[in-house]
Task: structure prediction
Amino acid sequence: MKKILALVLTLVFALSCAGLASADFDGEIKIWVAEATVEFTKAQVEAFKAEHPEYANMTVTVEPVGEGDAASNMLTDVEAGADIFGFAQDQLGRLVGAGALVDVLPENAEIVAATNDAGSVSAVKMGDVMYAYPMTSDNGYFLYYDKSVVTDPTSMEAILADCEAAGKSVYMEINSGWYQTAFFFGAGNTLTYSTDDTGAITAMDCNYASENGVKALKSMIKLAQSPAHVNGSSASNATNLGAIVDGTWDAAVVKEMLGENYAATKLPTIDGYQLGGFGGFKMLGVKPQDDEDKLAACDALALYLTSEAVQTARFEAVGWGPSNLNAQQSDAVKADVALSALASQLQYCIGQGQYPGEYWTLATALGDDILADKYDAYTDEQLMEVLTTFQTTAGSYITK
Result:
């Protein structure tokens, strides 16, 4: 069934690209990508031109501009910016506000939604409109564990019980605004900010002060009370490790530490709900064009550069984790234990958008209070008061 689906999607992709080719285009297109992928992208552009003769004579320049700089440069001068450019998900709102992104064609949006994981699809959208093409799903956190100690990695309660019995440690950083969202988002809460093209915070959507918020807060308190819990997220600083919530950047450290007992999977459940959190995604955007033929060429090329085949090849060339569902199931990707675990987790995550610096400080203070046992004897009503204050303070960071 999967092979049939893959063939259907491949055919749809080919037909989509053919449909975009309303006329030959032999002009110039400029692409910005991270330096590590410049040569790879040049080779893929040539492959695209070979497959699409209507674009064989166009000139494509690939320049080394990283995701962070690309967004900043586009916001400074959209007209002088690249026609196609890579950027991280937290810049989407500002780029849309600045008019630096054209929305994805409906037929392409259908392909993107059908072939990429839910987290990456959510990350390229604002409301119901898709503004970019997912390129990677490779930044986020998940669970590493010692499989000789942890018998059931799907349940935080079971993990804690196993590690307590074995005298092992469970590492998860509670006083971090990044890791803390695992509980709140998993329990069904929201905390996001809207920004204008200058990056100013214009609105907040938050419902932490709710029954689900209290549930999440109580879960954090319970975790902190376990004698096995250690507040932290760096495998390099871990000792007596039974399990740790960490990311792909520490895969080599954890693998060396655990040896043949090295294992990884999505985050567990706690108190009956699946832990969620932030996910990190890279994407390709297309700048609005006055020339419809050039826009068609840009759209076709961006779709190709984020296709299953190219995402798989990019992983093999530079190690970037794919967002494409079929690419995630390739032998090469599945052989990467950490990346496979992350792919499983990202379906429960949202892309990290713009957050004011004060939010991170506020979240740290909440976590510090939990670690100091401040709320251990609080009633639900008192915990609701804590979250009401948190939510009100988080809303005070709106600047416009």
